[in-house]
Amino acid sequence: MAVMTPTEFLGAVPVDGYGPGFFRVGGTVHRGAIIVTPEGVRPWGGLGDAAALLALAGSVDVLFLGMGAEIAFPPRALTQALEAAGVMAEPMNSPSAARSYNVTLAEGRRVACALIPL
Question: Which of 18, 25, 32, 112 could form a disulfide with 37 if both were Cys (CB 3.0 to 4.6 A apart)?
């Protein structure tokens, strides 16, 4: 399991670690794909669940989209829908997305990450 470096999050929920099939967020293990916001964690249906990501419109400035173990591009239709809703999505592998989320969260920015497990 990879463990993230602790920092100050002012009450927001950070990603603490990850491993095969799971993420640890705020000290709790979550299996499967998840969406993490400063307020908490919720299950996510993966790339086919655009509605959950579109619901973030207006509440986040950036969405780090963790595509699993490898960097991959999300489906074009998803990217277009997010852009139309004003959600800036940055696809990367899930470990990078978790780290980027934590750094941006520590800066006090409005951020979320959607993570597909390794």
Answer: 112
Query: Mind listing the pLDDT tens digit for each residue in 25-52?
Result: 999 999 999 999 988 999 999 999 999 9
C-beta of residue 110 within 8 angstroms of C-beta of residue 12? no
41 CB contacts (<8 Å, ≥6 apart)?
A: 13, 25, 26, 28, 30, 34, 35
pTM of the model: 0.89
Which residues 6+ apart lie within 8 Å of 92 measured at CB?
Answer: 64, 65, 66, 67, 71, 100
Q: What 8-state DSSP symbol labels residue 35?
A: E
- The answer to whether 34 touches 44, Cβ cutoff 8 Å, is yes
- Which residue range forms the structural domain that includes residue 96? 2-115
Instruction: Please report, for the domain that includes residue 49, its CATH number.
Output: 3.40.1230.10
- Condensed to tens digits (0 to 9), the pLDDT of residues 92-104 reads 999 999 999 999 9
Structure tokens at 118: 């390794």
